[in-house]
Amino acid sequence: MIDPKTDPLDSAYADVHFKDRCCQLITASGARTVCEIGGGRSPLLSLDEVRALKLDYTILDVSAHELRRAPDGYTKVVGDIGALDASSIADRYDFMFSRMVAEHVRDGAAMHRNVFSLLRPDGAAFHLFPTLFAPAFVLNRLLPEQAARRLVVALWPHRASEIPKFPVRYSKCFGPTPRMHRFFEGLGYGIEEYRPFYGTTYAHAVPVLGGLEAWFNTTMARRRSTRFTSYAWLVLRKPRPAGRTAHG
Ligand SMILES: C[S@@+](CC[C@H](N)C(=O)[O-])C[C@H]1O[C@@H](n2cnc3c(N)ncnc32)[C@H](O)[C@@H]1O
User: Fold this and answer.
1) Atom of ligand 1 at shortest range from CA of 67
2) β partners of residue 119
3) 60: CA distance to ligand 1 center in Å?
4) What is the pTM (predicted TM-score) of this model?
5) Are 233 and 199 in contact (CB under 8 A)?
6) If you take atom 24 of ligand 1, which residue's CA is the nearest one?
7) DSSP letter string over 81-108?
């Protein structure tokens, strides 16, 4: 039997390996200024890890409430990555990343444009997000927010009492289709990795429908569908202007 944590197409793999890949990208490029978008109450890197890697680490989150719940010691900025004026803080970060945030942003194109502005030339962005057209996320997108919230509480009462459900939009949250490649390249990014993952945890929570969903996702994984993915991770790089070397 395949272990989902080692099957590179399974969404559990993305979950388990995201942090390692993030740290690899930071250390490989010698990044110092790092911004975690939507880090909220639980930033990916602990303060000890931030110190060990000698990072200047900012958490940017739309919710002041979530940021207040993160430990003291981080630089915290309240802001909507899809609606901020990036011009005043352009070329600020060596590395920006988000995990389970892009699906909440109202205007995904604006988010990726803003990240591009905020990155220094040669800086990289790394995002992990759920994608349409996985059936569970299509349902989540179509259900009115109140109904979706009630469903989450019914399925995971314990988790729902701890973590609020943020409204979802799935703007620009798609797998690595040719169209999405063109979209990111059109913004000026170089695409270093655009990996699809398949499967959600809904299969375990809902008896019959969940089984059908699991079968569907497994079939899509076998076909390497780029349209019916469940999650994607994306490594983007802002090119250095022509003629400039790594040292400026
Ligand atoms: C589902 S939580 C994910 C938290 C964390 N990244 C993780 O993986 O555990 C979504 C986070 O994104 C933040 N968020 C939602 N929309 C945002 C936006 N437009 N700009 C910045 N942060 C946003 C929320 O406040 C929340 O902290």
Assistant:
1) 27
2) 93
3) 9
4) 0.92
5) no
6) 38
7) TTT--GGGGTT-EEEEEEES-GGG-S-H
Domain 11-237, CATH class in plain words: alpha beta
Q: Which are the contacts of 12, defined by CB distance < 8 A and separation ≥ 6?
A: 4, 5, 199
Give the rounded distance of the alpha carbon of 20 from its chain centre: 14
What are the C-alpha distances in Å from 157 to residues 162, 164, 180, 185, 205?
9, 11, 36, 41, 12
Measure the CA–CA gap between 131 and 170, rounded to whole angstroms: 7
Provide the token pair at 208.
Answer: 């019959």
In 3D space, the residue among 133, 238, 137, 228 whose CA is nearest the CA of residue 184 turns out to be 238
For every one of its 248 residues, what pLDDT tens digit does the chain have, with 9 covering 90 and above? Answer: 557 678 899 999 999 999 999 999 999 999 999 999 999 999 999 999 999 999 999 999 999 999 999 999 999 999 999 998 877 777 899 999 999 999 999 999 999 999 999 999 999 999 999 999 999 999 889 988 888 778 777 777 776 666 667 889 999 999 999 999 999 999 999 999 999 999 998 767 777 787 888 999 999 999 999 999 999 999 999 999 887 665 55
Ligand 1: which of 22, 74, 99, 104 to mutate, most ligand atoms within 8 Å of CB? 104
> Which residues form ligand 1's pocket by a CB distance below 6 Å?
37-40, 42, 60-63, 66, 80-82, 99-101, 104-105, 166
Compute the distance between CA of residue 114 and CA of residue 228 in angstroms, rounded to an integer: 27
Query: What is the CA(83)–ligand 1 centre distance, in A?
Result: 14
